[in-house]
Amino acid sequence: MNEVAQLAASGQLKEAVDALKKSPTYDATYFYNLGILHGRMEQAGLAVAYLEKANREKPHDPEIQNSLRVAREALRQSLIKNGSEGAVDGCSTPLEGFADRIRGEEILGVIGLITLSVSLLWIRAYLKTRNLTKTLLKPSGWFGALALVLGFAFYGVYQAGSANPPAVLISKQQLRSGPGMNFPEIGSIEAGIKVRIIGDPATVNERELWQKVRYRPNQTAWIPLSSLLPL
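The structure corresponding to this sequence follows.
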């Protein structure tokens, strides 16, 4: 890491990126540093891609989120300048956007805490009344049941929103109507743009992997799997 810092401090940003990638750790710090370096190189798409991944690995970190906002705005302005509509994420539904902002283990942790709290309330109420019906009909019983229902409903919404997981482009790609270079081009997509993964990748020529993605609400295409950074 000292080598990377020294190279970055001396303005040798490409060399710093290369040095960082020689010993990848694939954690939030690794992706954050890649994002910052590409941002300094004015490669907004790659900066967004790696900062999105850092944010996914370490959500709620204010430094990562602030850097990601700056990178997104830089990419948006670049897209508008090149005649695009400037949508960094034009593929996600509101439900998917909600699911992207939270983590499954966080929801399960909340459900576990609610379950423990409700169980303690019910046990306490039952020890006072020694009557199961009275225990369940008490306000604490209704509140506990409602909290559990809401917790599992919240988790169900998260699962539905995660059915098509997000990924981000790490290189500009031509969108194709099918898996492989022999299919017609139907557009292009820039690095840093978020897409939703649909199904499993397809093998082409026994070695190439192509992935079907949704890049707009009702539009899908195929791109090489190697161009995607799953979030």
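The mean pLDDT is 82.
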